[in-house]
Specification:
503 residues, mainly alpha, 22 helices, globular
Length: 503
Amino acid sequence: MSFHHVLVSSCRELLTLAPRTPYGTKRDKTFGRGRLLLLVGVPAALLTLGLWAWWSLTQTDIFWKMFDLSVYHNAAESVDDRGQYILYERPFGIWQLPFIYPPFSAYIFVKLLPLGFAGLKWFMTVSSLVSILAVCWASWGMLGYRRSWGRLGAALTTFAVVVWLEPVSWTLIWGQVNLALLAIVLLDLAQPDARWWKGIGVGLAAGFKLTPAIFIVYLVMTRRFRAAVAAVAAFFATVAFGWIVLPNASRTYWTNLSEISGRVDSELSVGTLNNQSIKGMLTRLIDNESVVGVVWLILCAAIVILGLLAAAKASLAGRELLGVVIVGSLSLLVSPISWSHHWVWVIPAFVLLAHMAFTSRRTLWWFATAGFFVFYASWPMKINALGEWDERVPLQPFGLMWLVPRDEDRESHWNVWQFFVGNSYLLAGIVLTVVVSWLILKNTSLTSLEPVEISTPDSGAVEGTPEPVGAAAPAGAGAASVGSSEPDGTDEGAGRKGVGIGG
């Protein structure tokens, strides 16, 4: 089937209002031996917290400085009648970086000023760890697992693993807001479509940091117009609130948005290794800003069209978490700046792979899950700017992509091997997004078929109250694998072909 035919047929199906596969049905899955899984998850989570606390206390120069959080705190301290004018005009924090978030986010940090910087560091650390657990809980719920001891055990076990992924580790180290925003977006999208407040979380997250606004487009494409309207209303409410409480800062921000967003490049080059976005890779590869801009727009347009179409089809076919992960990866790929610690979308992606490993009879999924962890894990290393082991450098949680020269324009002199290693987050994200999107578009049909009889085996799990989680995929949704196009017997209303990915 040609690429053109796949796109045309997919657009036709979406525009003809193909029926939406429900999720959160009476046949929600449960974990077998749920209490045993909980007995594994609790000590695993406590062990992870203990090890993280020990490493943090023994390496305070790395773990407890929280350079990004110092920018937020210092910027909030400047906000008064006069400070509104300098909020977007001068650098802040330990590293003297610009504040580039909307005024609404600045006001949130203003309200946290009574905690002091030391208290704010504890607040951000605890809230980020809670956010990780919330993301794990919501991810398993969006796969169709009802509230039970087994789901809690799975969430705790997953939590114990994903804390050691490099994007998660560095979000905690920098004191970044990525994990909190991820939790807000995912918990919002996990709500049943019938909830009137669904979409508000997406709008609030977009008002705090503009990137989550791509999920408003996703809600429109999946025909959840009420949620999309709620998201838009919540976003504009944050803008209006910012104009009321910080009118001067709001005027400066919204009338100079492009200039303010570009100020990061004046302090930290877009082409530095840490920027794992398409624009970052092109900047490292091409020494011509105009050419980079044109190529970047073309590539982003192509991958966004492909990814959003695939995400919409996955969602409409009942694979909500798969669709959400695709959109999350798109937000990373097309953003001008996606630091490695922005890649916290690896958490729900890991849950997808873990789900497939546990539910599929193919050993390949276990290797895929293990390989994913090894690739994105934070390994204790003493790596200098040349990508070499250096005993003079503190032990830090680096990912494998850091094993190449970086900073001071070293990226422009990479050889072929270093190019692939240094762009590995991005290249892996592009390949997986494109391949999975193509398989979804090619192998997923939203055309109704004859209803089939569904039978669900007894899992022997401790039953909980059925939870109509917002976008669960009652069957396994996972990463790239061509599955059968036959109806999935575990789907409620399985009288249509399911997603050919991890089904």
